[in-house]
């Protein structure tokens, strides 16, 4: 968790002089980021967040930000870059692609409430509908093909029981492929964990970090949200928060009967995806002699996968 690129007041003042946003009053690094460097910037007019992309070329950033700009035109609260006085929104600082966005009020929710789950469900459905007229969603780089390829790479890190679980789940998901492909799909956020949303009490103020957004089944996106926002102490889902989430979502886009019949498969897929990505993150952290934070451990998602599998057996 860091800000990788340091900025001086003179560099920032120079950048801001190209925008019509007032004078620089203060700027503070935001330590919560993982991938990019973010600064909270206060000008004489309002609050902004400045993001320097640490690992991406300008064309990649243009592609990432396409969705946020589209949703911004539909008045959704997502970080859509502000244009400078000549209509340019992509700048460069220290040779890194840089954008300036409105800073949203609120903080990441901590103790998740049913009201917050209902609100995020509503917002996710709005996100799916509002993005449906934006063509060419990005390919999901952590989709089904990645599950298969990374699983064989990572299985050397696993004990026998986890290896068996992984093999069996991949076989199950492979068998479900044709069904999965029939689910309504389009742009998905693909990483709408509660640390990517801001709330003021129970009121949702913004959804952030659209940089994993890609093509996928809408139910899968909802399942990613459910696995995080409705997580219960027994590694499963809290029924009340889950019901609130689905009510919120369906108040905007009702699920079809076919989608409702696919819940268990898709919740399992969503748990598998983050089990795998956290296993990979663990391996990468180890290679730097680091550890993942306690709340980002792969076992959480392995255990949630087991819980969903047990549910499907008990129905069966
Ligand atoms: N537009 C914004 N308004 C308010 N806070 C923001 C905004 N953009 C980013 N942040 C804050 O910065 C943190 C890191 O942003 P994020 O896009 O998640 O970075 P990274 O991709 O580096 O993890 C967020 O968790 C949030 O606290
Ligand atoms: N929110 C995720 C991390 C983002 O996924 P990644 O595939 O980009 O690592 C988590 O909590 O694991």
From TrEMBL:
<dbReference type="InterPro" id="IPR050249">
    <property type="entry name" value="Pseudomonas-type_ThrB"/>
</dbReference>
<dbReference type="GO" id="GO:0016301">
    <property type="term" value="F:kinase activity"/>
</dbReference>
<dbReference type="InterPro" id="IPR011009">
    <property type="entry name" value="Kinase-like_dom_sf"/>
</dbReference>
<dbReference type="InterPro" id="IPR005280">
    <property type="entry name" value="Homoserine_kinase_II"/>
</dbReference>
<comment type="pathway">
    <text>Amino-acid biosynthesis; L-threonine biosynthesis; L-threonine from L-aspartate: step 4/5.</text>
</comment>
<feature type="domain" description="Aminoglycoside phosphotransferase">
    <location>
        <begin position="27"/>
        <end position="255"/>
    </location>
</feature>
<keyword id="KW-0547">Nucleotide-binding</keyword>
<keyword id="KW-0028">Amino-acid biosynthesis</keyword>
<keyword id="KW-0067">ATP-binding</keyword>
<protein>
    <recommendedName>
        <fullName>Homoserine kinase</fullName>
        <ecNumber>2.7.1.39</ecNumber>
    </recommendedName>
</protein>
<dbReference type="Pfam" id="PF01636">
    <property type="entry name" value="APH"/>
</dbReference>
<keyword id="KW-0791">Threonine biosynthesis</keyword>
<keyword id="KW-0808">Transferase</keyword>
<dbReference type="InterPro" id="IPR002575">
    <property type="entry name" value="Aminoglycoside_PTrfase"/>
</dbReference>
<comment type="similarity">
    <text>Belongs to the pseudomonas-type ThrB family.</text>
</comment>
<keyword id="KW-0418">Kinase</keyword>
């Amino acid at each position: 968790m860091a800000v990788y690129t340091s900025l001086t007041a003179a560099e920032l003042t120079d950048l801001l002089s190209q925008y019509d946003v007032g004078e620089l009053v203060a700027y503070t690094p935001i330590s919560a980021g993982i991938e990019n460097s973010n600064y909270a910037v206060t000008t004489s007019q309002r609050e902004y967040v400045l993001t320097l992309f640490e690992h991406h070329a300008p064309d990649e950033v243009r592609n990432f930000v396409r969705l946020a700009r589209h949703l911004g035109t539909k008045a959704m609260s997502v970080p859509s870059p502000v244009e400078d006085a000549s209509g340019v929104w992509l700048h460069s600082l220290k040779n890194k692609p840089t954008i300036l966005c409105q800073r949203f009020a609120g903080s990441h929710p901590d103790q998740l409430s049913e009201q917050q789950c209902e609100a995020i469900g509503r917002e996710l459905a709005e996100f799916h509908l509002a993005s449906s007229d934006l063509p060419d969603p990005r390919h999901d780089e952590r989709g089904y093909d990645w599950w298969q390829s990374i699983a064989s790479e990572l299985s050397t890190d696993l004990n026998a029981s986890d290896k068996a679980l992984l093999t069996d789940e991949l076989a199950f998901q492979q068998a479900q492929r044709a069904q999965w492909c029939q689910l309504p799909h389009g742009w998905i956020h693909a990483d709408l964990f509660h640390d990517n949303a801001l709330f003021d009490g129970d009121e949702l103020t913004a959804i952030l970090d659209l940089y994993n957004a890609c093509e996928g089944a809408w139910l899968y996106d909802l399942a990613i949200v459910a696995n995080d926002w409705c997580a219960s102490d027994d590694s499963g889902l809290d029924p009340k928060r889950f019901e609130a989430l689905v009510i919120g979502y369906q108040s905007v886009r009702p699920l079809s009967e076919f989608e409702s019949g696919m819940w268990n498969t898709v919740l399992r897929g969503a748990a598998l995806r983050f089990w795998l990505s956290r296993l990979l993150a663990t391996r990468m952290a180890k290679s730097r002699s680091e550890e993942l934070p306690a709340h980002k451990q792969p076992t959480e998602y392995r255990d949630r996968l087991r819980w969903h599998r047990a549910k499907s057996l008990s129905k069966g």
